[in-house]
Amino acid sequence: MASSDLRITGVSVDVIAWPLKMKRRHGVGDIERSMPGAILRITTDGGLVGWGEVAPWAVFTGTAEANATGIAHYLKPILIGADPLRVSSLMQKIEKALTGHTEGKAAIEMALLDITGKRFGLSIAQLLGGRYRERVPLSVSIANPDFDADLEFARHVASLGVNIFKVKTGFLTHAEDMKRLERLRSTLAPTADIRIDYNQGLDPWNALQQVREMEVFKPTFIEQPVKRHQWEAMAEIARAIDTPLMADESVFSPADAIAMVRQRFADVVAIKIMKSGGIARAREIAAIAEAAGIIGYGGTMFEGGIASAAGLQMVSATPNIALGAEFYTSTWVMGVEVLTKPLQIENGQSVVPDGPGLGVEVDEDAVKSISVAHYA
Ligand SMILES: [Mg+2]
Question: Measured at the alpha carbon of residue 28, what is the angle toward residues 222 and 26, in degrees to the nearest 5?
Fold first, then answer.
């Protein structure tokens, strides 16, 4: 099939403000009350609608505003009138037209795959070769500046079957972080799988000393202790400690993943569609890592149900993203649900949605209720 009978007739974007149920603190920055995002709607002349979500973080990837205007002003002209099923061809044109804006590109790709899946009655996981796993174990982040509130949250989600906890460190003193880990270890079951994420919060001169002392808590991995481009320091730490080291901010793209392999600056890599600019590039990273014996983890930004559904479809179909994932924010962190049927969590695991495309339906009134700017 050279081209289908479908054509894109509309591209609209809402910049939104997600209300949050809890504060979040990380080595790289804090989130107090609400989180900016954007929701993309692509319409076709066949009546099929594809949904996408931009989940940026200004200190990490980019901004909702820049992505929304990037789509509306630079990418919409490429999409209007195009065949939505020519996903890889359209994504190449988009890559040539606008640098960066990986979250906006991820949103466009998920909307195009949503349309493609709906056109053929297949889920995105099926388009990617089928599910490798039906459920994805959830990793819940311990990131509330009120640590007692977080212990309560950890106990609550543990009672729902969650067994993976990722503690955000590096925004307090090292002594305070050690105390938090001690308290968490004694609160949770001895079998709890604990990970530690510095979000770039340490400086290379004493990072190794601090990270080494954290090994006493037997974390499954220690994540991104130093800044994004301090690859040499990452490599030195990876060699020096017994605990696997995970790269998150240090690996956005497949080219970064090749550098990770060459310099061996990580043993684990956080794979996020918002960093890579979509599912195809995220799976390139997973493949490069797999060839080098590096294992993947399903990271997220602050994602609502649309982006989480896209990530879940990808993780379910990608064997090397094997250390769990974070698809709980739409259920437990965001104060508004934009899906008519929320993503399901059962026994501490995300259930991969059934149904064609993303496998979710969007409540347009809910989107309007948190919209702060609309580009049509
Ligand atoms: Mg991280």
Answer: 65
